[in-house]
Design a protein that fits this description.
mainly alpha, two-stranded parallel sheet, 17 helices, disordered N terminus
């Protein structure tokens, strides 16, 4: 879906791209219309190429992938910096994760501003509610991805003082720009999605639009990341009460776009490391012989490398949205952490039944919650490959002492990213610091 060409406003996110004087010097184009109607709002929220985006730079420090030697000559200076865990992963000063995700926040704020000033008409109430819920969802989803890229992991002991991201709550470009605390950012995200829940519809014609089940799935992910396992389990259960379908991989030769598992469709921003990375050999080795996730359905040859072909976008871009398989894994993990390990094991086996060659799957067994938790964490790595989620998992799992180390080799040099390293948190891009020199930078 594409919005109409009235997007002078897409450039208004200029606190990350140019200074105020530059913006004021821009002459308006009278051929471009300012959005004011409910139809305009829908077009803004349907511009999926602009706002259904998730950054990838955080994912680049994960152990999902390796870059094979034959692709090294194609790597840019930025690719090399990110692949080798350089202290400055943005040598040009720019980051698409910042400049291409904040516009989602601006679009959402623009819709909310229009709705706040829209005349009251009874016949418009349902549409206005749906649009407000959608805008709140998009803003929450974007802020969640931004804070988990450019801020330290959520820690209840330090979140109130840890610097988060700039929260843009209005369309006013003169609004002060400063980093809110991690605690304030998470509270803002939670408030947005809670307000959205009663406004969102059960279904939409396309999964690029937010729905009630998608909001529940997002809340399950949100609470998992901050360690509130009871709420994560509850909202995973709420999601699956509405949408619980899983694909039987035996029925497919490729993963279809908008398949039955997709709750909310979003794409990871394109990048060399994401596009040309080969599946990490440790992951390939972990698939059982009859596991279709290790077959041609998910793995294809690319110039001698074993590339990932199982994206739920069904196309070139990687999937960065929400899907029921992740929700089953959240419900299983949180159930295990809460001591309900038999329920966790049942969810895990139900998911895996849909992944193995028919008649070959032998249900997993365990004796206690710790054993089930280890199984679930392993399956998260195997199931949610190349979705941009591994960095979130490494950060939270290393905080509980799982000691995951990411290792790289580049032109004969060896690199290691140790547990709880500050390098898992990306710095604020140099171009942003240049515009806002008082903004606190992340330690590296």
């Amino acid at each position: 879906m594409k919005a109409e060409k009235f997007f002078w406003l897409t450039g208004i996110m200029l606190f990350m791209a140019c200074n105020k004087k530059d913006f004021l010097d821009i002459k308006p184009d009278n051929s471009l219309a300012v959005p004011t109607t409910l139809s305009d709002c829908q077009k803004l929220l349907d511009d999926d190429m602009m706002i259904n985006n998730v950054g990838t730079v955080g994912w680049t420090v994960s152990d999902d992938y390796v870059i094979e030697e034959q692709f090294l000559p194609m790597m840019s200076i930025t690719d090399r910096a990110q692949y080798s865990f350089a202290s400055n992963p943005f040598p040009t000063g720019a980051s698409s994760d910042w400049s291409n995700v904040y516009p989602t926040v601006f679009y959402a704020n623009q819709v909310l501003a229009i709705l706040d000033n829209y005349p009251e008409k009874d016949q418009d109430t349902a549409l206005k509610n749906k649009l407000r819920g959608g805008a709140l969802f998009f803003r929450a989803y974007a802020n969640f991805n931004l804070v988990n890229t450019f801020s330290k992991p959520f820690d209840p002991l330090t979140a109130a003082s840890d610097p988060g991201i700039p929260l843009r709550k209005k369309t006013d470009i003169n609004e002060p720009v400063f980093r809110s605390s991690v605690a304030d950012v998470y509270s803002f995200i939670e408030a947005d999605i809670m307000e959205a829940i009663p406004l969102l519809p059960e279904t939409e014609p396309a999964p690029t639009r937010p729905t009630l089940p998608a909001a529940y799935a997002f809340l399950a992910r949100y609470y998992l990341v901050i360690g509130n396992y009871e709420k994560a389990n509850r909202y995973a259960d709420s999601c699956l009460a509405h949408r619980s379908g899983l694909m039987d991989y035996n029925q497919y030769t490729s993963i279809p776009t908008f398949n039955k598992e997709v709750l909310f469709h979003a794409s990871l921003l394109d990048g060399f490391l994401n596009s040309y990375g080969s599946i990490h050999p440790d992951i390939l080795a972990s698939y059982a012989e009859n596991d279709l996730r290790g077959s041609e359905l998910f793995v294809y040859p690319l110039n001698g490398a074993k590339a990932f072909g199982g994206s739920y976008t069904g196309i070139y871009y990687r999937f960065g949205g929400l899907a029921t398989d992740e929700v089953y894994l959240i419900r299983a993990e949180t159930a295990a952490r809460l001591g309900r390990w038999q329920a966790a094991l049942a969810d895990l086996n139900f998911l895996l039944e849909h992944r193995f060659i028919t008649g070959t799957f032998e249900p997993l067994t365990a004796n206690n919650a710790d054993e089930v938790l280890d199984l679930v964490i392993l399956e998260r790595r195997k199931e949610l490959l190349f979705r941009g989620l591994r960095q979130l998992d490494i950060r939270r799992l290393n905080k509980e002492g799982r000691n995951i180390v990411v290792r790289r080799s580049l032109e004969g040099n060896q690199y290691e990213l140790l547990p709880n390293s500050p390098l898992y948190t990306m710095p604020i891009p140099g171009q942003v610091i240049d515009l806002h020199p008082d903004m606190e930078q992340n330690p590296r």
